[in-house]
Structures are given as C-alpha cells and as structure tokens.
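A reminder from the course coordinator: this example appears on the midterm review sheet, so study it carefully.

Given structure:
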C-alpha cells in the first residue's frame, strides 16, 4: 500500500472510486476538468492510497491562504479500520502545516455516523456556536 500525491491522471479513476459510495456526494466541482483545476491550484496537497495501481483511498485537499479544506475523504470498504483514513488526513495536514496554513475545515453531513465518529475521534471540533452558510452561484448541472 502506498500513499502518494493525487495527480491529474487520478481524476477519472478517483471519480469512479467515489461514485455511489455512502457518505460521498459528488457535484459539479467533480468533473475531471474541475478537479484537475483544483489540483493545479493546490499542488501536492491531495492524496491517493493505492495497491498495485488500484485506488483504495482518496482525499482532496486545498487552501485559500488562510484555511485548508478537505473534501471526499474515502477508503475502500475492504480496507477500513486499518488507519488508512487517519494516514491520508495526517498527510494532508502535514502538507498544509508545511505551507504555513494554521487551520483546516471540512464538511460532513450530520447523518453520516461513520464520518462524524471518524472526525471527532481525530480531534476535530464540532463547535455548536458555528453555522455553515452557503449561496449557490451557478445552477447545478447535476
Ligand atoms: C470515514 C472513513 C474515511 C474512515 O476511514 P478508515 O480508514 O476506516 O479510518 P481509520 O481506520 O483511520 O479510523 C481511525 C479511527 O476513526 C474512528 N472510526 C473510523 N471508522 C469508524 C466507525 N465506522 N465507527 C466508529 N469509529 C470509527 C476509530 O476511532 C478509528 O480508530 P480505531 O479503528 O483504532 O478504533 C471511511 O469509513 C469511509 O470511507 N467512509 C465513507 C466515506 C465517508 O463518509 N467519508 C467522510 C466524508 S466527510
């Protein structure tokens, strides 16, 4: 098993890996072109875990100069509870720290029980005094 930076060539297989996975919702930012643009804006931050060239884990990571963001962390069901999710996240956070980014945010659906347990176990805060507000700027194509 190898963890390595997510490259533009990984976009199509990673989208196939995420498709249909409980806890992961793909949207208009998950076309190969949009994902390639995200990777180019955030070189070396997103990570892939693979075995014999096959993806068994993936996470997108970026930052805006003030805070990092993680998206679509997922591990193949056959490889879960072996510390792979934790390793993928730690690799991203180390790269963000290296870039001088002091904090990282992520979205997790309230009803994603596994996801919530995973993040809280890794020491992520769930500050009940915050709300996430969002405004759609383009009509959804999906
Ligand atoms: C969330 C996910 C990435 C975790 O990957 P993983 O490789 O199984 O996680 P790890 O083995 O690194 O788990 C680290 C710790 O998190 C906690 N944890 C992970 N999965 C858990 C579960 N199903 N129930 C309770 N705690 C869990 C445990 O404390 C675990 O440590 P332990 O196994 O020593 O008890 C994986 O379950 C997944 O792909 N889920 C579907 C996609 C998803 O919901 N992603 C999150 C989007 S926000």
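Designed residues:
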């Amino acid at each position: 098993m190898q963890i390595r930076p997510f490259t533009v060539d990984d976009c199509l297989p990673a989208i196939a890996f995420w498709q249909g996975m409980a806890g992961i919702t793909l949207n208009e930012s998950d076309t190969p072109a949009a994902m390639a643009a995200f990777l180019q804006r955030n070189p070396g931050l997103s990570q892939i875990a693979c075995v014999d060239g096959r993806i068994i884990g993936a996470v997108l990571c970026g930052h805006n100069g003030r805070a990092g963001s993680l998206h679509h962390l997922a591990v193949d069901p056959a490889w879960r509870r072996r510390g792979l999710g934790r390793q993928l996240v730690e690799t991203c956070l180390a790269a963000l720290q290296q870039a001088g980014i002091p904090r990282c945010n992520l979205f997790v659906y309230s009803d994603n029980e596994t996801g919530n347990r995973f993040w809280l176990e890794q020491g992520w805060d769930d500050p009940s005094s915050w709300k996430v507000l969002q405004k759609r700027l383009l009509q959804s194509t999906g």
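The mean pLDDT is 95. The CA atoms of residues 117 and 123 lie 10 Å apart.
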